[in-house]
Amino acid sequence: MAVQYWVGDFFVDLSRNQVTQKEQSQTIAPKALAVLTCLAENQGRVVSYDELLTKVWPDTVVTPNTLQRSIAQLRKVLGEDSKIQSYIKTHAKQGYSLECDVRWHDETDANSLVKKELLLTVGTVIATDTVITTESEKPETQRKQTTPNTHIESAYVATPPWSALRLISLFIGIVVLVIIGFSYFTQEQPFKLTVGELRSLTTTDHKEHSGIYSPDGEYIVFNRYSDDACGSNNIWAKNIKTQKETQLTKNMGGYGSHSFSTDGKKLVFIETENCNQPITQKKCYKLMTLDFEKALVAPKSLNLLMECKNSRISKATWLNNNNIALLQEFSNRWKLTSYSIADNKSTVLYEQEDGNVVDYDFSSREDLIALTSIHSDGQNYIEILKPDGQVLSSHQIEYPTEISGLRFIYPNFTPHDNQLIFSTGRQLFTLSFQGKITNISLPLDEPMGSPIFHPNGKRALMIKGNWDSDIATLSLAQITMSSIAEPPIAKPQSAQMQLMQTQAESSLTRKSSNDSIPTPMILERSTLEEDNAVYQPNGQLIAFKSRRSGEGQIWITDGNSARQLSHFPMDSYISGLNWASDGKSILANVNNKLTQVTLDSKEKSYPFNHRVVQFFQWNSEDNTALLTVRIKGVLKFGELNLNNSEFRVITDKRVHWALKSEDGRLIYTDQLDRFWQPGPAEDQLIDILNGQGSDKRFITKNNVIYGINEEFQLWSYNLNEDAFEILGNTPNKVDALTDINQSNILLTIYITAKKEVAELTLGD
User: Do 586 and 577 contact (CB within 8 A), yes or no?
Assistant: First the structure.
């Protein structure tokens, strides 16, 4: 079989697993290309699902979802989707067909085609030059011998030596120009990432993240935490050659990503902890350093450089000038700042007065900062800066069809000049300094972060893993019965008796508390993320978000079996699900855009030029939605009219969660998890709910608010009667409270989070 062929204007090279159009190549998974080849061999004919599965996956048991994912990958490459099927057509309950011309080639080297085209071009230029040579340009003797019928022949046979030299020089000049042009074009192309090996470097029962290489390339440094540590972690180092692991920090903490000093002797990072007396935020941020060399001998304490109690800081990076770059938030806008250790002061390196900063990376080799931002036009840009803040270039990012233009990207430097790299989950892309994005890799088996390259440029660290959560339900009766009765306390007769009585009481209380926690019933379970479960109004279905098919999709279940409702593209991100009041469709935030999906899987996206960050609630009767959106990079909470795309800002406060009650009263929580509702002149605190807020959301039903506090207690507050009540205990692995009906609540239960540091070795 030929290993090269054309599908329309796409050139398919099976020997390299590549599809090329207009000199832009994409590497495709071999199985996806095998599906395309099978369709090409049967061009115009419907190929059944079974035939494709048998041909591409012989002697292997796979699900139809595997074939669907391959079709989805091919459609992205061919620039179409499930609605626009100009290449691959779906035939319901039958199969697929390829609906465009196919041309087959026997060449095995795609470069030979390019070389032939170049030679033909050069030959055409030379022949054209010979044909248009006039009689007046030739010697008199030659003019007499030439006739119109023998013009071309005599030009090749009877040309004097000096004319032949002129043609040879012309030929050489054109070839040189072609080579120079081809070399220049090649330099502008993104580098080809050829994967030699992907292996895990940390494979413990704990979770590892934030991996970086030391400047000499001998160590990797990473954070390690466990479920029992409540989010705290220690910083570890691993010698790449000896595989010896060393704990660097003496005590656990909320440590963020870290960066080495230029000499490799120190680490800098941010520690996050709860504020003792919160004023504007619950978390305080500390800029810390650690002596790396001494910590390799024995764990060391940290050195505090700076603390922020009323602003957030993130991503500390040591610059070559010994300053530390930081992202710092002021009044809901992020700025890139530089902290001077010597002067103990910060200066702003970059800011967008009418936009926002998204992310940055620093290359010590090139002494450059690459920064992504949102400008006043609402578009995403890539800026290249010097460490003193001088902007060298600024270009709008050109998003390809496979990435939503509303999506933020977080690129890192690569060993290649003018090229950055980033991940969208299961796909890798390059971003040039000029803002051009190109897909460079095979789809990954599981989500991974953006690569961080080794100093030698031949390998890179990536963080891979999955979040595992389930959909569960608890009856309100179970929760109400979980109230703990205080055990009777006998009056002690002596200090020793008092101690014994206290120990017994403590043991009894712990046992009673554990016994009193009700066990939830798991409704939907997979080894990946299930979340956002909501009851169908006046129906028996439950809608939820799941990654069980390999991609984030909307699913529905009747309690016995589940089916996939949506068919969003690869690396789609879904947050927030709401049923229509008639129970016939669902509205969700998909890739920062509101998308409605009906029960027969039809999709409709609502036009809105701003990025939807959080989707809280949908009133389908008047077709409005409560949202947090980014306008010129700044978060705004308000209500969107889906009929005319008009957005009304409700408050400039940072809103954590928000809902309306049945009678239209707005309730929201701020970043301190305090509850608010609008008043006649200004928003009013619901004082009785102070201390009841958490990151587990809240829900409303029949003008009653239900929530789970940080002690994992379910509570209720009746808005009409101003009555508050603790209903009982919930499991301590509740991640979110998502819905309630007359007798049950729906919960997201955290199971585990698998994270590890992996190393990607590049092929030759």
Answer: yes
| pLDDT at position 204 over 50 | yes
- The answer for residues whose C-beta is within 8 angstroms of residue 531's C-beta and 6 or more apart is 469, 471, 544, 545, 546, 735, 736, 738, 748
What the block records as the tokens of 357 is: 């900063």
Tokens standing for residue 330: 């002021």
Q: Are residues 11 and 99 in the same domain?
A: yes
**How many other C-beta atoms are found inside a 10 Å radius of the C-beta of residue 554?**
23
DSSP state of 186: H
| 457-467: pLDDT as tens digits | 889 999 988 88
Query: Which among 660, 589, 651, 584 has a CA at the least distance from the CA of 619?
Result: 660
Per-position b or e across 427-463, b if 16+ CB within 10 A of its CB: bbbbbbbebbbbbbbbbbeebbbbbbbbeeeebbbbb
Verify that 16 and 89 share a domain, yes or no. yes
Half-sphere CA count of 348, side-chain side, radius 13 A: 11
User: Residue 664 carries which DSSP code?
Assistant: -
Tell me the pTM.
0.70
Q: Are 387 and 370 in contact (CB under 8 A)?
A: no
Separation of alpha carbons 279 and 4, rounded Å: 65
Alpha helices, DSSP H only, in 208-337?
Answer: 292-295
The total number of structural domains in the chain stands at 2
H or E stretch at 113:
helix 110-131
Query: Among candidates 31, 25, 52, 54, which has minimal Cα distance to 41?
Result: 52
Of 734, 614, 606, the residue nearest 669 (C-alpha): 614
Same domain, 100 and 16: yes
The candidate with the shortest Cα–Cα distance to 357, out of 375, 373, 370, is 373
* Averaged pLDDT score across all residues of the chain: 83
Q: Give the three-state DSSP class for 693.
A: coil
The pLDDT assigned to 158 comes to 37
The number of angstroms, rounded, from the C-alpha of 587 to the middle of its chain's C-alpha atoms is: 21
Q: Which pair of tokens denotes residue 682?
A: 């200004």
Range of the domain at 83: 4-105
In this structure, are residues 8 and 101 in contact, taking their beta carbons and an 8 Å threshold? yes
The neighbouring-strand residues paired with 448 are 464
Alpha-carbon gap, residue 428 to 450, rounded angstroms: 8
Amino acid at 217: G
Residues 62 and 119 in one domain: no
Q: Are the C-beta atoms of residues 542 and 747 closer than 8 Å to each other? A: no
Q: What is the pLDDT of residues 205-226, one digit of tens each?
A: 888 999 999 999 999 999 998 7
Q: Residue type for 175, please?
A: V
Q: Which helix (H) or strand (E) holds 125?
A: helix 110-131
DSSP lists the bridge partners of residue 470 as 749
pLDDT digits (tens, 9 = 90+) for 630-640: 998 889 999 99
User: What are the distances in angstroms from CA 386 to CA 12, 370, 559?
Assistant: 42, 9, 58
In a domain, 84, yes or no: yes
Give the up-direction half-sphere exposure of residue 453: CA atoms within 13 A in the CB hemisphere.
Answer: 21
